[in-house]
Amino acid sequence: MNPNLSQFGTQMSNLTGVRAIMKDIIETLRTGEGQDFINLSAGNPVILPEVEQLWRDCTEQLLASSEYGEVICRYGSSQGYQPLIEAIANDFNQRYGLNLTERNILITPGSQSIYFYATNAFGGYTTSGKLKQVVLPLSPDYTGYGGVCLTPEAVVAYKPALEIDEKAHHFKYRPDFSQLTITEETGCVIFSRPCNPTGNVLTQEEVKKIADLAASFDVPVLIDSAYAPPFPALNFTEMTPVFGSNIIHCMSLSKAGLPGERVGIAIGDPKLIGILESFQTNLCIHSPRYGQAIAARAIASGALAKISSNIIRPYYASKFDVLENTLDQSMPEELPWFLHRGEGAIFAWLWLQDLPITDWELYQELKKVGVIVVPGSTFFPGLREDWSHKQQCLRISLTASNEEIEVAMQRLAKVVQSVYQRSTVNV
Ligand SMILES: Cc1ncc(COP(=O)(O)O)c(C=O)c1O
Q1: 413 neighbors 373 (Cβ within 8 angstroms)
Q2: Quick one: angle between helices 82-96 and 289-300, nearest 10?
Q3: What atom in ligand 1 is closest to the CA of residue 254?
Q4: To the nearest whole percent, how much of the chain has pLDDT over 90?
Q5: I need a surface site. Which of 91, 94, 189, 292 has the fewest CB within 10 A?
Q6: Angle at 220 (CA atoms; ends 390, 206), nearest 5 degrees
Q7: CA nearest 164: which of 395, 338, 377?
Q8: Which among 97, 128, 120 is positioned nearest to 220, based on CA atoms?
Q9: Residue located nearest, by CA, to atom 4 of ligand 1
Q10: Residues 263-309 pLDDT 10s
């Protein structure tokens, strides 16, 4: 059977970004008999015992409660499970001095679905045939934004400015406000903070500047807070969420130990939330309620926020330190390697300036020494212009053990050294 696909069918049946590489990685792990790979490609969070226990406890409470049948044996509202919405409103009002009501909150099956609803509700062609862009103000960014929009040409990303500390072998991306364009042709703006893949945290001022630019044209700004405080609190630098009339604050419980249950949260103006909610009703009626019910307990008790800052954050922050220290010790001083400042998320981002081969070729070389990372070029959705930097980066997951990270970074240092050396010899 070879079905004829529609334009949307063709678009959605293609794997984009990391999902496409994952196929190659799974194949490599399956066929690489006898070779022990250190897999630093994973975006799947580590199962931390304290976190698992929290969800086990919440499940036991749910099972023991009279609510159980109501939660799983009946349909609920599209907007989400009421006790979870209340728990979030109370927590955020108290924590950030807001005045949220239930009308400000939507629960979705994972946060990825928020980006699907938003990029297609605000981006794409209007009824009068005008293209509304989905603007990614700071490339590289989350690869998933490349696959969610049914109108791929709508997604437009902007090249960053680079702040480089040559001596320390560090760098940081900054939004380039001299280039960033938000106009009446913009449908919505999206960025992750902390950022997957780079760990970058945009400053309060940068966020406000982007939100103000967008507000002049009534453009919603989605701040993807999948790694932000209060849960999972995967920020290693101080940061406070930014709220505003045109900001949709998007959260995920996936990195707080619940990726399997698919719980996403959108907080924003009731009008914007209402649009996303209608999209959701049409798509899937509502989010599954078991995950929502246990999340309501974990948030209302304060346990999730506590475990996030006491357990989840230090776990990944210390992995980043191990990675950084190992690279400092093993990478040759004279090579132009730069680690992005580790400000959050569960990845490190390495830039190898003037790398003589592509990131894909380096990925293949690393596989030969048993190390799997993700080539960086997949993290530039919407950035169409040629830019050699796109082929000079790697995303390294912090989900492996300390020993694995150390060994992998030592092997990476050797491979990188020989790659640069080979090119000097060839010259
Ligand atoms: C930045 C970012 N946004 C969104 C998502 C999707 O998360 P969810 O599991 O909530 O759909 C991820 C997943 O890794 C992510 O890294």
Answers
A1: no
A2: 30
A3: 9
A4: 91
A5: 94
A6: 55
A7: 338
A8: 120
A9: 112
A10: 999 999 999 999 999 999 999 999 999 999 999 999 999 999 999 99
Q: Is the CATH code 3.90.1150.10 the one for domain 7-49+307-426?
A: yes
Atom of ligand 1 nearest to the CA of 113: 11
> Residue 299 is encoded by which pair of tokens?
């948030």
Calculate ∠ Cα 26-31-37, nearest 5°: 70
CB count in 10 Å sphere of residue 92? 23
Range 75-302 classified under CATH 3.40.640.10? yes
Closest CA to 398 of 333, 339, 332: 339
Give strand ranges (E) for 71-182.
Answer: 105-108, 124-125, 131-136, 155-157, 161-165, 170-174
Separation CA 114–CA 118 (nearest Å): 6
Structure tokens at 13: 């049946």
Q: Establish how many alpha carbons lie within 13 A of residue 405's alpha carbon, considering only the half-sphere containing its beta carbon.
A: 23
Residues in the chain: 427
- Do residues 394 and 349 lie in contact, with contact meaning Cβ atoms separated by under 8 Å? yes
**Cα distance between residue 171 and residue 336, in whole Å:** 11
Q: Give the pLDDT confidence of 102-137 residue by residue, as tens digits.
A: 999 999 999 999 999 999 999 999 999 999 999 999
Q: What is the pTM of this model?
A: 0.97
Indicate the Cα dihedral angle 382, 222, 199, 109, nearest 10°. -100
Q: Report the atom number in ligand 1 closest to the C-alpha of 195.
A: 1
124-125 and 393-397 beta bridge pairing:
unpaired
Structure tokens at 95: 């924590």
Alpha carbon 298 to chain centroid, angstroms:
22
Cβ partners under 8 Å of residue 368, min gap 6: none
Residue nearest atom 12 in ligand 1 by C-alpha distance: 226
Which residues have CB under 6 Å of ligand 1?
Answer: 43, 110-112, 142, 144, 192, 196, 224, 226, 252, 254, 259, 264
Q: Per the structure block, which two tokens stand in for 362?
A: 């380096």
How far is CA 127 from each of CA 94, 110, 133, 360, rounded to the nearest angstrom? 41, 29, 14, 41
| DSSP 8-state secondary structure symbol assigned to residue 239 | -
CA of residue 177 to ligand 1 center, whole Å = 26
| Domain residue extents for the chain | 7-49+307-426, 75-302
Residue of the nearest CA to atom 14 in ligand 1? 43
Nearest Cα residue to 241 out of 265, 274, 263: 265
The CA distance from 116 to 136, in Å, is 14
